Amino acid sequence: MAAIVRDALIDDAAAIAAIQVATWQEAYRGIVPESFLAAMSVEARTERWRDAIETRLRGQSTLVASSGGKVAGFAAFGAAQRDDAPPGVGELYAIYVAPDRWEQGLGGALHHTALNGLSREYAYAELWVLEANDRARLFYEHRGWQWDGSVKPHPFGDVEVPVVCYTTRPVHT
Question: What is the distance between the alpha carbons of residues 49 and 54, in angstroms, rounded to a whole number?
Fold first, then answer.
């Protein structure tokens, strides 16, 4: 069944939050502290996503992928979030697909549409991914992203976990 990728609506916020929590709890197990994962709240994340979709904070765009009439994945992108980003740099903030829908083409469809969106405003793009998240790193490398050598700590509760930066130049689809 083909995925339909569209702009997210406020009514999609709960589905996006549920996918984010389920994906983090599956994909980040053993990378991020278990206490952090266990404390994740779909309700709290729903409010954050509702606000992000409604206000388009920092020009953020949010997409959802649906298959069979149900939201099964999402992507978010916009201006680079780091303070020292040069002009013309966009960022792919997230691509998450419900764990029971992995390996079905939804992530690729979201990636393609997000890069189309980024290419309309930015010369190149970056993304940050957990250093130990081999599945995600391979996903991005397969699509032409290259690790630029940058590593920085990212806090998860009281623990910092390294994230690495990938770039693509120029933004392409």
Answer: 8
**Rounded to the nearest 5 degrees, what angle is found at the Cα of 121, between the Cα atoms of 167 and 152?**
30
Domains annotated for the chain, with CATH where assigned, are 4-168 (3.40.630.30)
Closest by CA to 130, choosing from 15, 30, 16, 17, is 30
pLDDT per residue as tens digits for the range 87-124 = 889 999 999 999 998 888 899 999 999 999 999 999 99
- Tokens describing residue 9: 């609506």
In eight-state DSSP terms, residue 101 is: G
For the chain, how many helices (H) and strands (E)? 5, 7
Q: Is the pTM of this model over 0.85?
A: yes
- Over residues 144-168, the pLDDT tens digits come to 999 999 999 999 988 999 999 999 8
What are the tens digits of pLDDT across the range 4-43?
Answer: 999 999 999 999 999 999 999 999 999 999 999 999 999 9
Short-list 101, 81, 137, 80, CA closest to 18: 101
Return all residues near 133 (Cβ < 8 A) that are at least 6 apart: 27, 28, 31
